[in-house]
Amino acid sequence: MSLLPHQLELLSPARDADIGIEAINHGADAVYIGGPAFGARATAGNDIRDMERLIKHAHRFGSRIFITLNTILRDDELEGARQMAWDMYNLGADALIIQDMGLLELDLPPIQLHASTQTDIRTPEKARFLQDAGLSQIVLARELDLQQIKAIHKTLSPSTSIEFFIHGALCVAYSGQCYITHAHTGRSANRGDCNQACRLPYEVMDDKGRIIAHEKHVLSMKDNNQSDNLRALIDAGVRSFKIEGRYKDMGYVKNITAHYRKLLDEIIEEREFSEQPLARSSSGTTTFNFEPDPDQNFNREFTDYFVNGRKDDIGAFDTPKTPGRAIGWVTQVGDKWLEIETSDKAAELHNGDGLCYYDLQKELVGVHINRAECVHAKKGIWRLFPRSEMTEFKDLRKGMEINRNRDMDWVRSLEKKSSERRIGLWAEFKEAANGFTLTLTDEDGFAATASIEQEHQAATDAAKAEATLREQLSRFGASIFSVNDISLTLSQPWFVPASALNQLRREALAALETTRADGLVRLPRALPVEPPAPFPEDTLTYLANVYNQKAHDFYMKHGVKVIDAAYESKEEEGEVSLMITKHCVRFSMSLCPKQAKGVIGVKGTIKAEPLQLINGKEKLTLSFDCKPCEMHVVGKMKKSVMNQHAKEMQEHPMQFFRTRPTPQKPA
């Protein structure tokens, strides 16, 4: 079991151990982070010693560390992945997040396994199969709505936890179903090396050769934000709330973790006396030295995507950059400066702020401020000296609206200590035959006692002696604890030297930390059902991402009869779906046949004919599957990628699953 049915888990990302530690300090119940390799982010590996430091810190609060081992693996990589799994287990990691089912055929440690978003879980049947195969926590596809989440929740046992992305960048494809990077570059999104073709600008051409959109980022989504849907997601069965962002910086993780910590704590508090009370899955209470604000971090504006059904404003088609918030408008433009009037006269600008505006082509232009001078405080007039020459700012003119997308004052505030996380405890100070004892009992029920030999010395001032005892015993400032109450069990007021009380408190705290560490229960590995549960389908295409023989063996064991090799095996040489997505370009441009269904004079004239995306020499075809309401981006693997692969195979032979004979080396 991963989470008890009443527990909520805030799951934060970490690029490295230091960010992970701050995620814990800002209220994360769990952190997911890449180990030394195989973590679906090609440049986000972490050193063993750093991992150990993070795991120890997390476990002090009962928080968990999940290791991302979620790439598809070649046969010659399986042993390295197996060894890494054991290394992480021996360090104390709590779970592995996996995509490649071949791992389930290896001698893995008894560590809990979670299904990565890359496993593409959209149906109750797929979710139930992964549960029956031995996975304890599954992250659902971001594209699902509340009814679909509920349907999946109903089919799972209470011991399986549903995880859902609540914030961050959105991958436009169903995760694990995008091969554009591999087709065009030979790199692989399924192996942590995506080139983000979805963020590029494209010409959109219809089947008659007409341009219907020019230089638009039609595959670029706004960023995910489920702040307003948390209660509905809880009621639908979600228990782990996942923040995207293993490439993000410290400020982002601090701010977004704090934002959702506050929201989830509010929900836990309001449901305290309901029929189904909730609790956080780790210990302590977090307080912040700042007011969390998701708008302060890089974002492409926000959407709640498909959670409440399909909407027409999910795309960031004008720019993949962060537009920020409107702050004012231009009043003058000089040869080395611009002057703006702020809409909020109390707003302050700072050296280093980032501003931006949309030029006449609706492209976002950034303005990095070197120096900001207040000209007229009451009127909110500021003179700004940019880092770049004024001639570089296209279409900048009087009356133009200006946004701020980087507030240096905010950035600096998060560079300091910005939170405190404390575990509540109760202290009991008692006299013993030859001294005193201090027993500490924390909010989780862990208790520890320390004793000290000390002469019983009557206090001359009873009230002062009791006040001094309480003050000295409540000094938990340097620890992770805060005292809820102190009880004194004494036959009469005693004078106890401060040095003795400090020693007693230190020893009791050390003993409590040890007791907590010893009492931490490792998450149990779920056992697969026997006989092996049948996979929902008996035929798998390249979309199943089978890249090694062990993965093939896994699916065969579960009743699959035909198994194609992963796209990365280079066996799909013709045109195939390089991306499958719930996003529909036709719908976003009001060209969807379903939208036109009831419109008089339009009905029947709009059809789901293919469109073409063009970026330079790259051409992709959009085809529309209207029954499930999905779009396919169709293309083929470049010859240069095939040629480079053939060359690499000659120089450094690699082992991976194929369905066709291995190409022979030239004589």
Automatic annotation (TrEMBL):
Membrane-spanning residues: none
UniProt-recorded name of the protein: U32 family peptidase
Annotated InterPro entries: Pept_U32_collagenase, Peptidase_U32, RNA/ubiquinone_mod_enzymes
Gene source species: Comamonas suwonensis
Classification via PANTHER family: 23S RRNA 5-HYDROXYCYTIDINE C2501 SYNTHASE, PEPTIDASE U32 FAMILY
Signal peptide: none
Ranges where the Peptidase U32 collagenase domain occurs: 402-516
